[in-house]
Design brief:
The complex is a heterodimer. In chain A, 75% of the residues lie in helices and 2% in strands. Chain A is mostly helical. In chain A, helix 11 packs antiparallel against helix 15. The longest helix of chain A has 32 residues. In chain B, strand 1 and strand 2 form a beta hairpin. Classes of the chains: A mainly alpha, B mainly alpha.
């Protein structure tokens, strides 16, 4: 196994291990996850210095051109480092968090899901095959669903989890459709091949599927990264335990959409449509997120919306064709936002609430969290010497120099204004958090616990990252780092702690002043925000959509699945009849072409046929259900005799046993049937019954007659073929059984699966009903 | 349900005999009439006889559905084994090997698939019988 495969495989191995041993390991499952995270981190580090990106390619579905292809280019490896690194910190943090909040019994589940999620994220970062990328993408959606719904006895958790799943999975499906279009247009699913090959990219651009593919892929990216108008699922997901919010909904999963944008930028960015969609969506998300962030009083909701804002900024950067910003902005955001989320967790852990209106004056009680929060907020607000300052400075530089906007001063100005105002809002939100929790008078909440080292240690690592990277920007270390890791080839970003250009520095000063002003006049800003009610509330629209769909499904089900056996039976019989007749029609086979003769029927067969007719008549004429059931059984055994006459022991045996068992089942079920009211049958209904059964009988009769007719049997005789191959290839003399278990084993798999599901359904339905009543 | 003593006496002999017959039919399935499906149905018949004679008591406490799931896993696993040697899913092989007491054994790997079918049929049918029986008992009480 190469290091590259190990990066992705290690967390999945850990997930399986924890799932199996979770009960025995208890909270120490965290160490298994930690080990997996460190393995992935180390393995990724070992890939970094390579001259050409490491590549693993295994055949998977060669007939469709889909392969298991991993590739560690600089940006992918950077992303993987981030995922594995923060994963390790989150594992440690969870260890400090778990004992009183997560519940002993669910620890195994928690760590197993978290590890699987980490593996899937690493898969996204390193996948080079579009279909493989999609699969990892969906695994993150599913594990995120499970993790958000961790406290599933809470209604809010279930709702938040379901909304997140529906939105991201829907986007994921759209993305898959987009990927298929790309694959069809370019003839390859291998991302790096498509990007490297000019003719493939030209084929995509020229293809009519170009714009649909662009929209579909963007739908995937926007839903995952919570872009307007899909932003509503992210705050709802904050019901999850804090380590999960930190990991999934701040540091990694929501950045998967950004990552996808980076991956498809080389394919789409040159088109004219791209900036016109991506920039407005990104900027709208940036502003709305920042605006909403300042409104929130819940620590995690505040941070969630500020995350939405940053994701919008990153999206806009791709739209503005400055992808070289991505590594810098992602790194900056991950360091400060991870710190702040962890601080929020410590505060909640200590004070028992996350509501800013109940918190205050905790500076003395939680000194470590306080210092961490200062670092985080200053970086979020973009103040020196933290990395956030450097990142913002560089961003303003890129915006001022933008070649895309340079020709249109009005647009250029408004884009910069939106970014500036949003940044100011973020700074104000940060100050609100810092001052609300740690300064002012102590309000309702009292500190019950101290600050466990396991909780603040990981946050210290991240905060030191924010500080260290900022200080390192005084030299060219950070610059080289982020340029090397960026998704843009040959990124030449200027990153410096010491302002080198006047323009960006001036914009930073304006941002700072505006942010302080927003904070100073916060009561008036709040009043304004109250007046502008939550802008277009996508959550309500979405809920209406989901409710509408459910109502439609209900109405349809009640109409179609109305519980009447007669109705079901009619539907099944008519469908079978229809499809049989259609097959005959389509094959151009007509009953008229058959030469039917009863010449070689023989007395035994004729007698049997007569008896079968009589018993069938008895079924129809019976006055009680029991009588009908017995007559039916008699008819079935007579059919078995037919098989005896025609020397077919296998089917004979099966028929006898099946008749026996179905009679028993009928007798068992008879007990629950409503009274047998044949007299109450309306003439119309009786006629309908007769018509349906008559039609079905006729169709089957014709079908069997045709199947057994030599004229049609000889054309392609499968039977002979199977008989000939049975012993040699499958080592069995009983061709019937060999067909079932070997030649047509895939069919049998389908059938037995249905059988198992039926058994489970009967068990589940009847048991739950008995338990309820 | 009141069980009849005659049925009990017959069942004491007939149930094990039927089960043996079912095993025999399963075993001969690859070469003679029989196989997992039929043998499973036969075993379920034996199960019904037991239920009718001795009541639902112990039989209803056995988790029959797990037998179905086990069978499905067995069938899938037998199909997946050839993949280890580079063949495709469900590409069964014939294993010929020597065992100490039994001598040469001719064992198509499809037998394990058939075993899965057997377990599923027994499990699902018994689930049906037991659940419907329990339901009837509840209606009576």
């Amino acid at each position: 196994m190469t290091a590259l495969t190990a990066v992705v495989a290690a967390p999945f191995v850990a997930a399986v291990l924890i799932a199996v041993l979770g009960r025995a390991l208890g909270r120490w499952s965290a160490l298994v996850m930690l080990a997996a995270a460190l393995t992935s981190f180390g393995a990724t580090c070992s890939l970094l210095g390579a001259a050409s990106p490491a590549l693993v390619s295994l055949e998977w579905i060669p007939s469709l051109g889909v392969s298991f292809r991993l590739r560690a280019d600089a940006f992918g490896a950077f992303f993987a480092l981030l995922i594995a690194g923060i994963g390790a910190l989150v594992a440690i943090y969870s260890l400090g968090y778990d004992t009183h909040s997560l519940g002993r019994a669910r620890l195994g589940r928690y760590y197993a899901e978290l590890s699987a999620f980490m593996g899937a994220m690493l898969g996204i970062a390193l996948a080079d095959d579009l279909i493989l990328l999609f699969i990892f993408w969906e695994i993150t959606s599913i594990s995120s669903y499970l993790l958000i719904g961790f406290w599933y006895e809470r209604e809010a958790a279930r709702e938040g989890a379901l909304t997140a799943l529906l939105v991201t999975a829907l986007g994921g499906l759209a993305m898959l459709a987009g990927f298929v279009l790309i694959g069809l247009a370019t003839g390859s699913f291998a991302l790096s091949e498509i990007v490297a090959d000019d003719s493939r990219r030209a084929a995509l651009t020229a293809s009519p599927a170009f714009v649909p593919a662009l929209f579909l892929v963007l739908a995937g990216a926007f839903t995952k990264s919570a872009q307007v108008p899909f932003h509503f699922w992210l705050p709802g997901a904050m019901v999850a335990p804090t380590p999960i919010s930190t990991y999934l909904h701040s540091a990694t999963m929501v950045k998967a959409g950004i990552f996808l944008l980076a991956r498809v930028t080389p394919l789409f960015a040159a088109s004219l449509v791209w900036p016109w969609i991506v920039v407005p969506v990104g900027l709208a998300t940036f502003f709305l997120g920042a605006w909403q962030s300042l409104r929130e009083n819940d620590l995690k909701a505040l941070l969630a919306y500020s995350t939405v804002a940053t994701l919008g900024l990153l999206t806009a950067a791709y739209g503005l064709r400055v992808p070289e910003q991505d590594a810098l902005q992602i790194l900056s955001h991950a360091t400060y936002k991870g710190t702040l989320f962890m601080v929020a967790g410590i505060v909640e852990h200590a004070a028992g609430t996350r509501d800013l209106r109940e918190l205050g004056g905790l500076r003395k009680a939680l000194p470590i969290s306080f210092s961490l929060c200062v670092v985080g907020v200053l970086s979020m607000g973009g103040l020196p010497p933290l990395f956030g300052f450097v990142a913002k400075e560089s961003l303003y530089g890129s915006l001022l120099d933008s070649s895309l906007l340079g020709a249109q001063p009005l647009l250029h100005g408004s884009v910069i204004a939106v970014v500036l105002v949003s940044n100011a809002f973020l700074l104000a939100a940060g100050l609100k958090l810092l001052i609300g929790v740690f300064f002012g008078p102590a309000r309702g909440a009292r500190v019950a616990h101290g600050e466990p080292a396991l909780l603040w240690l990981p946050a210290v690592v991240l905060a030191l990252g924010a500080l260290g990277l900022g200080l390192a920007s005084a030299t060219d270390a950070s610059e080289r780092l982020v340029n090397g890791w960026s998704s843009a080839a040959n990124a030449q970003l200027a990153v410096s702690l010491v302002p080198t250009h006047l323009g960006p520095f001036f914009l930073s000063l304006v941002t700072f002043a505006l942010g302080l002003a927003l904070h100073r006049f916060r009561t008036r800003v709040e009043a304004l925000q109250q007046r502008v009610d939550r802008l277009p509330d996508a959550q309500k629209l979405w809920n209406a959509l989901v409710v509408g769909l459910t109502r439609f499904a209900e109405a349809y089900s009640v109409w179609w699945q109305n519980g009447s056996l007669r109705w079901y039976f009619s539907a099944i019989l008519l469908f079978t009849t229809g499809i049989s007749l259609f097959a005959l029609e389509a094959g151009g086979i007509s009953i008229a072409s058959l030469h039917v003769s009863f010449g070689n029927l023989g007395w035994t067969s004729a007698g049997l046929a007569l008896l079968i007719l009589m018993t069938t008549f008895a079924v129809v004429r019976a006055d009680t259900r029991l009588g009908a059931a017995l007559a039916l059984t008699a008819s079935g055994f007579l059919v078995a005799l037919v098989y005896a006459v025609y020397h077919s022991p296998d089917i004979l045996l099966t028929q006898i046993l099946i008749e026996t068992v179905s009679t028993i089942v009928i007798l068992l079920v008879l007990y629950f049937m409503p009274p047998f009211r044949k007299d109450g049958l309306s003439p119309a209904l009786a006629a309908w019954n007769a018509a349906v059964s008559g039609l079905f009988g006729l169709a089957m009769f014709v079908f069997v007659l045709l199947c057994t007719n030599p004229a049609f049997r000889e054309t392609r005789n499968l039977g002979q073929d199977y008989l000939a191959r049975s012993l040699g290839e499958a080592g069995g003399r009983n061709a019937v059984n060999v067909i079932i278990v070997d030649f047509r084993a895939m069919d049998t798999i389908g059938e037995i699966t249905v059988l198992v599901v039926v058994g489970l359904c009967v068990y589940g339905l009847l048991r739950t009903r008995r338990a309820a009543g | 349900m009141r069980e009849s003593p005659i049925l009990r006496t017959v069942a004491r002999i007939a149930v094990p005999l039927t089960l043996l017959l079912s095993l025999r039919i399963f075993e001969q399935g690859h070469d003679l009439p029989g196989g997992g499906f039929v043998a499973g149905v036969l075993a379920a018949c034996a199960g019904v006889m037991h239920l009718l004679a001795f009541g639902l008591g112990r039989a209803s406490r056995f988790p029959w559905w797990r037998l179905s799931v086990l069978g499905l896993l067995c069938a899938l696993a037998s199909g997946a084994v050839p993949m280890l040697t580079g063949s495709t899913f469900m590409d069964h092989e014939i294993l010929d090997f020597a065992l100490p007491l039994l001598g040469n054994v001719h064992l198509p790997s499809a037998t394990f698939f058939d075993l899965g079918v057997y377990l599923i049929v027994v499990g699902t049918l018994m689930t049906l019988f037991v659940e419907l029986g329990l339901e009837e008992r509840r209606w009576n009480s």
